[in-house]
Amino acid sequence: MKNTLALAFSLVALALPATAAQAAATVNVSTGQGAPGTADPMWTVGPNESLAFIPTQIHPNWFSGGAPAGTNGNNDGARWITPTSNGLANQPAGTVVYSAVFGLSQVATLANLTANFWSDNRVLSIVLNGVTLYANNNGLASQFNGPGTALNVQYASLNAGTNNLLEVTVQNDPGSSGNPAGLRFAGVFSAVPEPGTWMLMMLGLGAVGFSMRRRQKMQVRFQFA
Asked: What is the pTM of this model?
């Protein structure tokens, strides 16, 4: 009976942290996860939160994650998104805000965001839940024909059960040969479970070890009538 209870406790203790870790482990926030020619399922364009589109054609100078110029490949998991379904359409000069809403069902003590981003013409800032993750203080253009700009930050304010807002503000400069606007953001959040989750995991592993130890000590006795 004691062995049965120990085994049951072990299974429950292991199942709880496994479920929590899976719920909070990874969130892909890359642009263009849908099919070319459709609206992006995660990203919108402000200030009215209009649909952001994954166009089939983009400006021939825009780098496309390893794909040939002018195509919208996603070799690194991201495609360009634009304010309109026609990626070659001219847009007014000024700022464009791209927003992504995602959720975590498990509290995380810390999250790492590893990303690369491109834009036409420059990313001014990247903000998550009102906290600035990136600020373009020198006004340099975000490369749209090279490897992009790297972003690697740690963020500690992701809450369970709430949506988290990621905002990328892009400056669209006037162009002499057309003025399209676009963003590519290849990024993944990796969340770290809170200490309580790790405690449950250690308790589960300890219970399994205790159960196995008791089984090894059991002796077989033969009784003759």
From this structure: 0.75
